[in-house]
Amino acid sequence: xxxxxxxxxxxxxxxxxxxxxxxxxxxxxxxxxxxxxxxxxxxxxxxxxxxxxxxxxxxxxxxxxxxxxxxxxxxxxxxxxxxxxxxxxxxxxxxxxxxxxxxxxxxxxxxxxxxxxxxxxxxxxxxxxxxxxxxxxxxxxxxxxxxxxxxxxxxxxxxxxxxxxxxxxxxxxxxxxxxxxxxxxxxxxxxxxxxxxxxxxxxxxxxxxxxxxxxxxxxxxxxxxxxxxxxxxxxxxxxxxxxxxxxxxxxxxxxxxxxxxxxxxxxxxxxxxxxxxxxxxxxxxxxxxxxxxxxxxxxxxxxxxxxxxxxxxxxxxxxxxxxxxxxxxxxxxxxxxxxxxxxxxxxxxxxxxxxxxxxxxxxxxxxxxxxxxxxxxxxxxxxxxxxxx
Length: 389
What we know:
CATH class: Mainly Alpha
Structural class: mainly alpha
Oligomer: single chain
Order of helices and strands: HHHHHHHHHHHHHHH
Largest sheet: none
Number of helices: 15
Helix content: over 70%
CATH architecture: Up-down Bundle
CATH superfamily: MFS general substrate transporter like domains
Shape: globular
Number of domains: 1
Radius of gyration: 20 Å
Strand content: under 5%
């Protein structure tokens, strides 16, 4: 019997436009907020609120999706509503209003990626080499946006950013109507209380590591662009430096099957956390040494590409189909939600206090703690190896 073809183009287009939005917002949203007159602490709070909604929103949407089986429909509704919410950015530019708009926007936006992951992994049957190639198109669009918009914002005002984001969101909504709709099993006979999947020490260690890793990355995502601007880097140069990291990430995704064929999930996690520590030290201590700055940006292959792939597959294997959406949502909530919020808020406090390198020293400390937790507690069994199971 011939296996049905995998709709790789339809899956790739979801990631392409989703991360195109991220490529517009992550590097440049803090610049936009600064241009609107917000100070460092206010910027940190707005960014933290966007992360805080990840603590609950993905779990709520994941629970609804798992109970209803309507993963694609929920994704489409979430994209549509968050697009409407984001239009509110044009109404006013004061701190309180922007905070309110981003609260509602991010509540729906944060429903999207966990459902993408569940849809993709079940469409692909958990085939991580194909997942990595599909996911890599998100990295491609991120590069195009950070480089293209970096050049663009050297020539036009960053106040044009909301219009660009809305256009990309509309493209994402259109792409979602062509998304595959896999049959994800929701049999009551295989459904255990969700908390039972969280009681293993290795699962607890995984989530603690994920939280600490994203505290570190919260500093990078929220204040790296402002940090480079304070050092007189142009916006086109800043976009190019961001892009170097994402190019490395793409290469990691394409070669993950070979990488994991040689090393276990534990070894990959430990190695990547060491790279994290080195990367944040260099950014904090030697930001004007362009050679070293570019070199550690290549480390994004490990600090995001490898860790993300290990994490997504670990969650996929530990949380069966009946709770797939909730499992991916919990990973998003703890790592990008709690971790991201703490990283954003801590970075904002340090930045406003005048410690411009402070966010990245905070990232060093968080990464060291993550390495300790992973070394002592993160030891998955062979079935948790990422690719080729």
